[in-house]
Amino acid sequence: MTDIVPLRRNVRFHLLWIGSAVSRLGSEFTRLAMPLLVLALTGSPGLAGIVAGARTVAFLLIQIPAGVWVDRWDRRRTLITAQGLQAVVSALLAALILTDQVQIWHFVTLAVLDALCAAFIEPVLDTAIRGIVPTSQLHSAYSQEESRTHAAGLIGPPLGGLLYSLGRAVPFVVDTITFLAATLFYALAKVPRRPANHSQPSTREDGEEQHPIRRGMRREAAEAITWLWRQRGLRGVTAAMMVLNLLGGAFLIPLIVLVGERGGGALTTGTVLAGLGIGGLAGALLSGRISKLLPPGRLLLTVLTVFGAALAATALPWGAWWPMVPLVFITLSTPSLNVVLSVVIARMVPEELLGRMGAVLSMGSMALRPFGPVLGGALAAALGGAVALVVLGGLLVVTAAAAALSRELRRFTGDVSPAGGDAVQPGATPTGA
To answer: Rounded to whole angstroms, how far apart are CA atoms 324 and 247?
Structure first.
């Protein structure tokens, strides 16, 4: 038996991690710069929400076909091509801003193209980790991935605000450079081209080989959806995540409006948003301990409650910097949930379904997310930043209370029972109805 290489010596994983970290950092620059620029050009929070919503709609529409194609195509080539095209899209937007020719329809169009690239990148990264990291190391690998995400969330917003203050195009130019660097790291990582147990060609009655990739896309997507439908607890988790992504995705624009109403500029806004990264890094470091305290279902209920309460607390009238404090608590709880669900999916889902299942689960949990920025922008325009944040926080707490009524969700552990449904904790007793 071959000895398992420690994760710290897994060069391919670390190259993949560095590439995704660099790419994520650049995206954090523009995550803040984009709404700031749209607000500066139009003065409309609603339009800023529409731009963000358009990207999410495009991502969701292409996600399931992208997941099917990822399972069919050469995954290494797909990742490198999609990341390279994302660099081109970012460069085009930077050029339009530099030449003072950018218009709202440019933002929408290029946001959609960026989303199409991201729809291919994300499932390849998910399957790549499963392909180059042993099962026993998955929790450590996903914890490191989560740390990357929140480190970028910590560093990115204040740097994005600083770059934006240097020039409106600067964050987008830097983002282009990070995408190019990520493309290089992905090439060096040598992502597995196919699953280890990729199906062999079958033979038709006339003797001609029929490769699995020629099967209809609907049939391949239906296989993943059918598999998910049989996992009752995972269905409940997906439904709760839909609401979490809708309401959690709506708070950015009201928060930007709130900080502006209290006299904060771009740098202040970026520093406040860094609270997400601070909490996220701490949460990622604690994810191993937290995940041992609560099973996935109850952990989800806890995250919904903490998220809602902290979001409402951002509206307390204690100055432009105050929202940074509750933002820390929001992401202190979420990394454990992200890590646990990533490990659960990697262990539950068959290798040959990973691309499709990643797309289906993401599509399911994010189905309402396109409406998040639009909802947040509309609430901020109608009620102001503070009241909008209180409303969103209250709705998250109500969601947690409603989700707690589901026995399957409360008892979900991520194990698959022989009958095809989710196994529940032995001897667990319901906490509610």
So the answer is: 18
